[in-house]
Design a protein that fits this description.
Helix content: 25-40%
Shape: elongated
Radius of gyration: 16 Å
Enzyme class: ligase
GO cellular component, one term: cytoplasm
CATH topology: Mth169, Chain: A
CATH class: Alpha Beta
EC number: 6.3.5.3
Low-confidence stretches: none
Number of domains: 1
Catalytic activity: N(2)-formyl-N(1)-(5-phospho-beta-D-ribosyl)glycinamide + L-glutamine + ATP + H2O = 2-formamido-N(1)-(5-O-phospho-beta-D-ribosyl)acetamidine + L-glutamate + ADP + phosphate + H(+)
InterPro entries: PurS (IPR003850), PurS-like_sf (IPR036604)
Distance between the termini: 7 Å
CATH architecture: 2-Layer Sandwich
Number of strands: 3
């Protein structure tokens, strides 16, 4: 099963990269860009998942153990159809 994980910083956690992106956008004339936050997107195939619920459970375990820092980051998991 193909899984997409979106990882973002939790509210209240400083985001210096987001601020740098916002500053660069303003410098390029995009003055309306505000509150910029950056994150990361991870796509992976979970080949041993029996079904979508199993794939989501395995992806959650991966996030909790490696992919995300649960102290500073939150994540959402999207299970997509097998490719």
């Amino acid at each position: 099963m193909k899984v997409r994980v979106l990882i973002t910083l939790k509210n209240g956690v400083l985001d210096p990269q987001g601020k740098a992106i916002e500053g660069a956008l303003h410098g390029m004339g995009f003055e309306g860009a505000a509150g910029v936050r950056q994150g990361k997107l991870i796509e992976l195939d979970i080949t041993d998942a029996a079904n979508a619920a199993d794939a989501e459970e395995k992806a959650k375990a991966m996030c909790d153990r490696l992919l995300a820092n649960p102290v500073m980051e939150s994540y959402t998991i999207e299970v997509m159809d097998a490719a």
